[in-house]
Amino acid sequence: MSDVVSTDPRTGRTAEIVAQETSTEEVARLCAAALAAAPALEELGRDGRAALLRALADALEGRRTDVVAVADRETALGAGRLNGELTRTCYQLRLFAEVLEEGSYLEAAVDHAGDSPMGPRPDLRRMLMPIGPVAVFGASNFPLAFSVPGGDTASALAAGCPVVVKAHGSHPATSQLVFDVLVAAARAAGAPEGTLGLVHGLAAGAALVAHPAIRAVGFTGSVNGGRALLQIIEQRPDPVPFFGELSSLNPVVVTPQAAGERGTRLGTELVGSFTLGAGQFCTKPGLVFVPAGADGDAVLDAMAAAVQGSSAQVLLNEGIAASFDRIAGGIAGAPGVSTVARGTADDGAGFTAAPLLLTTSAAQLPEQVTEECFGPVTVVARYEGTDELFAALGAMPSSLTATVLRGAGEVELPLAVSQELRTRAGRLVYDAYPTGVAVSWAQHHGGPWPSTNSQHTSVGTTAIRRFLRPFTWQGAPAELLPAELTDGFTGIPRRIDGVLELPR
Amino acid sequence: MSDVVSTDPRTGRTAEIVAQETSTEEVARLCAAALAAAPALEELGRDGRAALLRALADALEGRRTDVVAVADRETALGAGRLNGELTRTCYQLRLFAEVLEEGSYLEAAVDHAGDSPMGPRPDLRRMLMPIGPVAVFGASNFPLAFSVPGGDTASALAAGCPVVVKAHGSHPATSQLVFDVLVAAARAAGAPEGTLGLVHGLAAGAALVAHPAIRAVGFTGSVNGGRALLQIIEQRPDPVPFFGELSSLNPVVVTPQAAGERGTRLGTELVGSFTLGAGQFCTKPGLVFVPAGADGDAVLDAMAAAVQGSSAQVLLNEGIAASFDRIAGGIAGAPGVSTVARGTADDGAGFTAAPLLLTTSAAQLPEQVTEECFGPVTVVARYEGTDELFAALGAMPSSLTATVLRGAGEVELPLAVSQELRTRAGRLVYDAYPTGVAVSWAQHHGGPWPSTNSQHTSVGTTAIRRFLRPFTWQGAPAELLPAELTDGFTGIPRRIDGVLELPR
């Protein structure tokens, strides 16, 4: 077994040994404990799990200072961002408590026995049930909001599913600390032992996905990582659902009118978006379509000025820094691509990258510029007229987001751009930037491959659907039904004989 | 290219040459036409597609006599069953028209811009959108309700997705006739050309699943067939969702009290269920737990009497007949399994099978009895006491259904059985039989692997969710939003700022 080390990305030095990589036997023990915990976690009911989620949020907030300090030392994301991330993860836990209390997520439906054009129909009652223990893979770039706690864990627990997390190697100390805080809070809130588990190491992650007790997998990471886990799942005797959030280019279109009206401001804001968190967001704008001509030049000039004035940023780990050098270098060297500006480099021992602004013609986009590059780089593609723009948009890979920066009151071109990009994205953003994914009821963070492999979101309240499966009782006596499906229950929205009814 | 032949299973003889196997070029042409049709099909809107679905139903009913005659000649399922199946498929089309009009399926949600604990939140509006062209694989055993028309096609069209069907080789003439009827009706109803396509042949089916235009696949068939299609999908540059309904044992538990109260009747009814449609239902009860002792003997005796009095049944095709001989023979020859009764054989040239009743002890179930065997065979597992019963239930594979036949007012044992089987089924049936899957709002036809690979149903109104994906508009001007997401729209249920509202 190898040491699990926590590294300081600002210095490149090992800060501490956090743990040993989890053995296959220990993975199996945690999975068995999760399976054993499942009935009792479900038994807590919606109110019990809502209380559990709120207790977890309270506990995390109670250790805010410690958690942020460890996470900052380990990720260099900065105290401001990490405090915000902790707030986000607590908000998310509490929002899922509301989801449980509201109860729509159960999709409860009752069809009483009766006649149908096909003859007599039996009594049928359907609702969604927890799918069973879930494996969650922590993401490198969100140590608090997509890792041990975060959207996957919160939605799985809300659904009634025990969770075993694979800690990301970028922040094992944060993962272990936060895990310990959550486990103590869960125990105090009456959750069964085994509700939460944590494993460290790649081999442990592979063993986790292969374990028979695991009924679904949530993953945020690269396409290659996702493909590798999918292969393990395909080799199971019983392939299970895999929810992967994988790779996203996030194209942005600046219309000629927008460039004319506020080109300089857009340029500055675009740099703010693509360098936010050192460009380590899945919604980072990786390709920006800017019109040719003077108005577009103003956008590019403002971007160049902002990038030239920027300093090197610290990336999360050595692997990301090396990938950034390789992939950004590949884009910069692709045919027709030229470098517009670069921030100040840092030749220290940390894992740093200088922000990089590249440009090319939209008429001939090399393949490299349509692939995600994690880190502070973006490519500006200049387009001559809308034909050239639409030809380029038609070749875009699918992304989590697509963005249109419009002129004031402009509709016609934005509508056409929306229609072109709608089949290639999960969220269309107008007059704002794709980074920043609000947690809410109407959010969708997903999209066709390669952005995800899923028809479900990983952010927002509907993320819970990933960890549920429908179940129907036919002709069941009332004593054998969940309370939510019994006649006379009025606590949640239900569909009765085809008609949706609100709670009373 | 090879001939696509229609065979009469009652005689084993070729009845006609229906078509040529579809070439890869023609598959590509049909997929491109489906992709081109997608925007116009979506543009029809909910009302337009509701009218389309009703027109398809009317057209099918208008050709009822012809369709049933061809299907009966080709499948030997009998005019009674096939008339019922046509009624079912028309009912289903019309029910999805109601689903469209009701509008809940869109899951429309509006979060107005406002403050949140994480700072200002933008305006977010989410609803489900068609996923794009869908490949549907017709099933052998439902020439009208899970083939060219049927749950997959109806729900995909309702969702707004063009459909290319792979006709099943068991009923190509029926498939072609019904397809021609549907295409003419769709054209008359204003659907775009390319809304429906049909391919024949295994190679064409493989090419269909691999085609870039196809965005989801619906399949009803064997685990091996499903695995083969999944492999093709995994090799796509962009793996797409696969909804497979694969294999199901459908265990039945007869409680001691039920056996004591009505053992003879249960035995007779169980034979009716497992020989219905010559045992060619995905919900056929394949393993029946019956208590040891005199009460259980009465169940088995009644089953034996019914089976002995039965005649050979015609199976759908030569492959199914050969598989039945091989797999049922394997079960009959497994350790501890003995043959109780067999119906009268038919030594003609048709693809026939005599109903077969086997028995074994629940204490030691050989692996063979836990695998699905398509055709008229079931195994009765006798159990001594509940410990033995629960040990056996704990080893059951997942199924579409599980059934409990209870005594009058009996609760305790049925509850324990339900809890044991609930994680291994999609529908729990009480005091009835799993064959017969009503089309309704609360139906669920699904379950964990190997019964399906999906968290969605293939029967009932919620089947539409398979062919939709969420989409969110952020900060969109009203002119760019679908009508259902604009302020003031009140035609469908929507979630406004987290609160579910009914239409007004």
Textual characterization of the structure:
- The structure is a homodimer of 504-residue chains.
- Chain A has helices at residues 24-43, 45-62, 64-75, 79-102, 151-159, 172-188, 202-210, 223-234, 256-275, 294-308, 318-332, 385-393, 412-422, and strands at residues 3-8, 13-20, 109-111, 114-116, 119-121, 124-130, 134-137, 163-166, 196-199, 216-220, 242-245, 251-254, 287-291, 313-314, 338-342, 352-353, 356-361, 377-383, 399-405, 425-430, 468-474, 494-496, 499-501.
- With 504 residues, the first copy, chain A, is α/β, with parallel strands linked by helices.
- In chain A, the strands form six sheets. A seven-stranded mixed beta sheet of chain A has the order 15-17-18-13-12-19-20, sandwiched between helices.
- Chain A is globular.
- Chains A and B meet through helix 4, strand 3, strand 6, helix 8 and helix 13 of A and helix 4, strand 3, strand 6, helix 8 and helix 13 of B.
- Strand 21 of chain A pairs parallel with strand 20 of chain B.
Name the descriptors:
23 strands; alpha/beta; 13 helices; 7-stranded mixed sheet; 5-stranded mixed sheet; 504 residues; 38% helix; homodimer
Overall form of chain A = globular
**N- and C-termini, Cα separation of chain A:** 57 Å
Can you summarize the main beta sheet of chain A?
7 strands, mixed
Question: Segments of chain A where pLDDT lies below 50 for 5+ residues?
Answer: none
Biggest interface goes to: A-B, 85 and 85 residues
**How many β-strands of chain A, per DSSP?**
23
Strand arrangement, major sheet of chain A: 15-17-18-13-12-19-20
**Share of residues in strands of chain A:** 15-25%
Question: What structural category do the secondary elements of chain A indicate?
Answer: alpha/beta
